[in-house]
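Posting this for the archive.
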Amino acid sequence: MHAITATKATTSTTITNAATTPTINTRAISTTTKGAPRQTPSTTTTKYDSQRLKMTKGILTVGTWNVRTLWATGKLELLRNEMKRYKYDIIDISEVQWTGKGETSNGNFIWSGEASTHSKGVGILLSTKAKKSVLGYNPINSRLITARFNATPFNITIINVYAPTSDAPEDDIETFYDNLEDAVAQTPKKDVLVIVGDWNAK
């Protein structure tokens, strides 16, 4: 497994549009580089007929964005416009605050949220190119979602996280990291593994 972890503190590029958008954290991936009771990750992974991801100059551009909420008219469309503007392949979203889990009708946004409350929530926004390369995704819970992409020379697995703060109950923190470890363990060993998101570091 070729693991790459991107956090808010170590991202390589920050793009800010102060007039309209929060900060987007960016990670460029070269595909040639070698609490509460514990929540059980979802065992059903949605699968697609995929096309191999052909990336410009071997680079896949992945951004992370804490949007505070997508539970407002027009927020997702704004996000899509920013993706096109900055030419991202994938944007990993935290604090989606949508209920349930699933994908939009056109399949370019997948999410995993709380069952009935508009809080937490993670999602992954896909460009047209990235969407065609999806092998499957797993909406684990409101803090973790994974997606796997068909790419050359190795497939890519992305884990998007929204970590609890240090003030959260110890059981919640332990549950989050236990579930993250499970997600990492389930990643095929030959995949390039990318872990991104909001770690709520202080």
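The longest strand covers residues 59-66. Residues 170-185 form the longest helix (16 residues).
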